[in-house]
Amino acid sequence: MKIHVLFFFILTSIVCMADWHSDILDKTQEKPVFLHNDRPWNYTLIMGIWGRGGGRGKGGGIFNLCTELRDEFPELPYRNTIAMSWNPGHLENEDPFGTPATMRHISDLYSRIPGSERYKDYPIKDLENRGKKPVYVALIGHSYGGRSVVILSNHLERKANYVATIDPVFGASGDIDGITFGLGIKPKGEVIHNWYQRNAIEFVDHCTGPPIQIPGGISLGQALKGEGVINYKRKFQRGANGEARYMNCPSLIGEDYKAPLYTYHTIIDEDDLIWHKITKQVKEGISLAHTTLVKKTFRATIGRFPMDKKEIEWGYEIASAKGMKALREELVQKFGNLAIQIEYNRYGAIPDDKYGEYKEWLSVHGIDFVGNEIKKRLQNPPSNIVIKNRTAGSSLGVINTSGKMHASESIHLGPNVHIASRKQITFDSKNIILEGVVVERDSKISNGKVMMSAKKTIKLQHGTVIKAAFKGLIKQ
To answer: How far is it, in rounded angstroms, from Cα 326 to Cα 331?
Structure first.
């Protein structure tokens, strides 16, 4: 029995395979501009800035931390982890009244991005507009390097993903400079951690304790103010797991005893617990930034976010090994037909011979471009619409949307089409054929005027099933 169904139709919602997507993207749903072609690691930047006297011998905590971070992330190009002075040059580095070399820091940071050059004319906005926007940026600084990081974080075109300062010093006048500085400039970043101590500048006699604090806090770190800043005041040295460190001290009247090791300005940048927390935060931040880029690339290329963690891992593996351009090409190869079909349905048609052309557009411009082009070409409704086997890798197509669809002659659903529950679809065509279609409960198919309801299942042509609570107009 061949059934023709008379309805009114133009589809306004897209066909989806699932509603899952990460909460990570809830705050930023915009599609990425396709400027990143290389691996996400090539757009990942870590900059460590040391202060006066840092970076030479054992005292160079920031230099050593950057070395540790290079070992931690072997996928990250060596040159993308930058360790440098707050004011390069021996005399400049030692000058307590000097000014941080912010322009040099900017130039060294952005010159690591593929295709960039070493600019001197404040190039950040121009660089990012030319596709040199980093995927992840971490800024880490100690002492005067902490001051440099705070300034640098205010000069980036976008917020740094992570800002970490260790006992930051803002000038030779100590706390007075810090207060004055803090009134005008505060660190900017998605995550901001600040570790500081008030014990001493140089070595402390751990058995007798730290000396009386120098008035004004000369070269002592301090708490930072600003949105999102988390301050950690440290008194003692800690191991990577947070355990206190001790030394044996002689006693004048009895057995030796153990005293905790105090931290101080010139040693706090070597603290194992601080290194551990910074490394952990950078690792989590890089993973989040890279994964978010993969998800946004899914959405922009094929019109949906990844279905599940398995798809995320598949996309991330391709992006990390071959680059973002390769990921877009793989997405188009694997899901391009479905993505194009979704866009056709939004504007009331099923593709004919345009797959090849539209798939090329997908890999270069993304789904929005394809949709706009289809819309331009479909000012007049198509004669016939056919929907069958809708989902990739499945024998059953799914219409998980409500909306309208219009064709001048006929609309043919099936075989293997599944209309999800609680959907309302309106058709406009001379004929509708349902072949092997399942309509779930509480869904409605109508011509906009008359509806039919059924409390029990109704079977139509070739296995079409309309379950309880279906409403629609059916004519033979």
So the answer is: 9
Which residue reads 């059924």 in tokens? Answer: 454
For the ranges 158-167, 181-190, 393-402, the lowest mean pLDDT is seen at 393-402
Q: How many CB atoms lie within 10 A of CB 450?
A: 12
Name the phi and psi angles at 342, rounded to 5: -60, -45
> Which two three-digit tokens encode residue 358?
């539209």
Tens digits of residue pLDDT in 298-344: 988 888 899 899 999 999 999 999 999 899 999 988 888 788 877 77
> What pLDDT sits at residue 198?
86
Q: Scanning the structure block, which residue is given the tokens 């000396």? A: 211
Contact present, 414 and 433 (Cβ < 8 Å): yes
Higher pLDDT, 220 or 462: 220
Position 217 scores a pLDDT of 57
What does the block give as tokens for 150?
Answer: 């705070």
- Measured CA distances, 387 to 17, 224, 310 (Å): 15, 60, 27
Give CA–CA dist 41/80, Å, rounded. Answer: 9
Q: Considering only CA atoms, which of 225, 236, 217, 227 is closest in space to residue 274?
A: 236
The number of residues making up the chain comes to 476
Query: Residue 474 contacts by C-beta under 8 Å, 6 or more apart in sequence?
Result: 3, 5, 452, 460
The answer, yes or no, to whether residue 345 has pLDDT greater than 50, is yes
Q: Where are the domains of the chain?
A: 7-20+338-471, 23-290
Local structure of 94: helix, strand or coil: helix
Cα–Cα dist 329/311, whole Å:
15
Q: Residue 418: what pLDDT?
A: 72
Q: Do residues 21 and 295 touch, judged by C-beta distance below 8 A?
A: yes
- pTM score over 0.85: no
Exposure pattern of 95-129 as b/e (b: 16+ CB <10 Å)?
eeebebbbebbbbbbbbbbeebeeeeeebbeebbe
Quick one: which of 37, 107, 108 has its CA closest to 79? 108
**C-alpha to C-alpha distance for 327 and 295, rounded to whole angstroms:** 11
Amino acid at 320: S
- Listed residue (14, 13, 19) closest to 307, CA to CA: 19
Half-sphere exposure of 275 (CA within 13 A, CB side): 20
Of 414, 421, 400, residue with least CA distance to 463:
414
Handedness of CA 53, 56, 59, 64 (dihedral sign): positive
**CA–CA separation, 38 and 47 (whole Å):** 20
Its CATH architecture, for the domain 23-290, is 3-Layer(aba) Sandwich (3.40)
CA angle 165, 168, 169 (to 5 degrees): 160
**Sign of the CA dihedral 138, 144, 150, 155?**
negative
Q: What is the CA radius of gyration of the chain?
A: 31
